[in-house]
Amino acid sequence: MGASSLFFLFVVHPLEFLTLLRFKLFHSPKRDITAPSEHVYTGWDHQTMRRCWEFLDMKSKTIGSVIKQIEGDTARIVCIFYIILRALDTIEDDMTIPEEQKQTLLRSFDEFAMLPGWTFTESSPKEKLRQMLVEFNVIHEELVRLDEPYREIILDITRKMGNGMADYCQRAGVTGQLYIETIADFDLYCHYVAGLVGEGMTCIFAQSGKEAPWLRQQLALANSMGLFLQKIDIIRDYREDIEEDRFYWPKEIWGRQVYGKAVGRPAFNKMEEMYQRGNERQALWVLSGMIVDALRHAIDALDYLHLLQRQSVFNFCAFPQVVDIARLYVCYMNSEVFHGTTNIRKGEAASLVMRSTSPRDVACVFREYACKLRKKANLEDPNYVDLVIELWCEHYYPPNAPAPQPALDGAVPLIFESGSRTRLLELERKAERDDMLEARAREIVTIGQGRSYDIRGRDSAALPSQSVEWNEARKYGEWERTKHVWRAWFNDIACSHKDIMTNFTYVTNNSSVTIRVRYDQGPTHDIDPGKEDHDEYWVHTAEGILVDVPGHSGPRKHFTLGNGRSAIVQDGNPHVLEVWRAQASDHSKREHLVGDLQYQ
C-alpha cells in the first residue's frame, strides 16, 4: 500500500487507518521463517525451498503470511501442497493450451510432479503464475524431500483434482457445451478445484498431529470450506472470467425463468447478457441466487472451524472465511460485480483478522454479516429467504452464555436446547429441495455421510431387521449424523416407571459406543436388576448389534442394566440409531428410551 493510498485512507476512513496501524504494530506475523533457528522447519537454508516460499507470495501475500505462521514444518508442507495445486490450476485456466495437450497435462500432473527436471514453458505469458510451471523442477526437489505420508496425500489430491478438471474441459471440448448446467455440477466442479484443497489440508493437519486423527473423517465439512471460498471467488470474478471465455455460473441459476418474470422479460440465454444495459435488475436477481447458493456452505464452514484445536491451524482456516463473508456482503445487490472486481478495503480485512481468533469470534463475524445481508435484502427478490447463520450462532453461542469448554480429547460437547431443536428441524425440512440438488455431487465427492445424512422418512420396516421387537416397534426418535456426534430429537413419551428418570449417554471413539444408563430414583423406589420388573434394552444400529455387557457371556441383542452399569456396542463404526426399553416381565410395554444424548 503506497503512501498516497495510506493518505487517502487516513482522510476518508480514519478509523480504518488506525486499524491498519494497530495491525502492523501488534498483529504482524510473529514467526520469521528466515531466522536460522527456523531453518530446520521452514527449509529456508535450501535455495529451492526459498524459491517455493517466493512462489507462495506470488499467489497471495495474505495467504502466504498465514501459512508461514503454522507451527513446525507443517507450514513447509502446506506451502508445497498449495503451490503444486496452483500450478495445476494455471494449466486449467490457460485457454491457449490445445485441448489434447491440456488433457494429458491435467490427468498426469501427479506423475509429472515426480519426474526430476520436468518443467512446462508453453503456458500463456498472460498467466500470472506461469513461472511456477517454468521452474517446476524447483518444486519437485522439495516435494521429494517430504516424508512419504505427506507426499502421498499431496499426489493423491493432485491426481483427483487433475482428473476432475480434465473431465470438465473434455466435456466442453467434445459436446460444445460452454456452460455448467446444474447446481450439482457446479458443486462438483468446485469440489475438484477447491473442496479437494480443504480435504488435503485436513489430512495434512491430522497426519502432522496438529489436529486430532478423527478430523480426517470430516471431509464433507472440509469440502464445504473449500466450496464456500471458491463460489465467492467465482462470483467476484464474473467479468474477468467472461472475457476469458470461462463460464462457471450454473445455468440452473442464471437461466431461471422466475428472474425474467420478476421484471417482465424472458430468462437469460447467455451469461454475457447480465452486464448489458437494461438487464441490471434481472442480473441482480441472478447474483442474489448465486450468493444464496454460496451461503449453503456457511454452516458447514462454521462446524469445521468448531472442531479445530490448534490456534495456528484455526487462524489459517478462519481468516479466509471471515474475509470472504465480508466480500460476499459487498457483492450482494451490487451491480459492480458485472463490470469489474469488488473487494473490501484493507482496513476492514485487518479488522476482521484481528477479531477472528476463536470459533465464537468467527461466529460473531458471520452473524454480523448475516444481519447486514438481511437488511440489504429486497422483498421483491425471488431468492428472499431466511438466513440460517444467525440460528447456528444462537444454537452454539446463545447470548450471555459462556463459551463451551473443550473436552479432554479436544471436542466440544454439543447440547441442544428444545427451542433451537425445533427450529433446526423446521429449517432442515425447508432445505430438502437443496439437499436433493446436492445429492449427485454428495454421492461422488464425500466418503461416508456428511452433516446432511439422515434417516428421517424411513419407517421401521425399511431398516435392517434385528429382532421381532424392533420390527413391531413404532419409531419415535429422529436422528442426524453430524461430524462424529449423534444428535437426537425425541417426542415427549410417558415413562412406564413414573418415579424413575432415565438418562443415557453415548461415549464414542474409533471402535465402540458405550451406553451408560443412570437411574435418578425417588426416595421410596429401589432398582434391583435381579427382580422380575427390571428393564431390558435393545440397541439398533445400521450395521448390526454386538453388545457386551458385564456379567453376561457373549454378544447379546438385548441386555439388562442396573444402576451405574454400562454396555458397549462394538462394531467398528457403529451407527447407533435407536435405543428401546421394555419391562422384562411384559415386553408389550415397550417404549423408546427418553433421555439426553451427549458427546463425551
What does this structure look like?
With 600 residues, the protein is of the alpha+beta class. It folds into 3 domains: 31-177, Orthogonal Bundle (Farnesyl Diphosphate Synthase), CATH 1.10.600.10; 194-452, Farnesyl Diphosphate Synthase; 463-592, Immunoglobulin-like, CATH 2.60.40. Helices cover 50% and strands 10% of the residues. It contains 25 helices and 10 strands. A hairpin with a 3-residue loop joins strand 3 (500-508) and strand 4. The two termini are 49 Å apart.
Count the DSSP helices: 25
Number of structurally distinct domains: 3
Poorly predicted parts:
402-431, 433-536, 539-552, 554-600
- The structural class is alpha+beta
Cα end-to-end separation: 49 Å
Instruction: Give the CATH level 1 class of the largest domain.
Output: Mainly Alpha
Count every beta strand, where a strand is a DSSP E run of 2 or more residues: 10
Function: Catalyzes the condensation of 2 farnesyl pyrophosphate (FPP) moieties to form squalene.
Signal peptide: 1-17
Enzyme class: transferase
Pfam family, one: SQS_PSY
Summary?
With 600 residues, the protein is α+β, with helices and mostly antiparallel strands. The protein contains 25 helices and ten strands.
Chart the SSEs and their pairings:
Elements: H1 3-12, H2 14-26, H3 39-42, H4 47-59, H5 61-68, H6 74-93, H7 99-107, H8 109-113, H9 130-134, H10 136-143, H11 148-175, H12 183-208, H13 219-236, H14 238-243, H15 251-254, H16 257-261, H17 280-295, H18 298-307, H19 311-331, H20 346-355, H21 359-376, H22 389-396, H23 418-430, H24 432-445, H25 468-472, E1 478-482, E2 485-489, E3 500-508, E4 512-521, E5 535-541, E6 547-548, E7 558-560, E8 566-570, E9 576-583, E10 586-592
Antiparallel strand pairs: 1-2, 3-4, 4-8, 5-7, 5-9, 6-8, 9-10
Helix pairs in contact: 1-2, 2-20, 4-5, 4-6, 4-10, 6-10, 6-11, 6-12, 7-11, 11-12, 12-13, 12-24, 13-17, 13-18, 13-19, 18-21, 19-21, 21-22
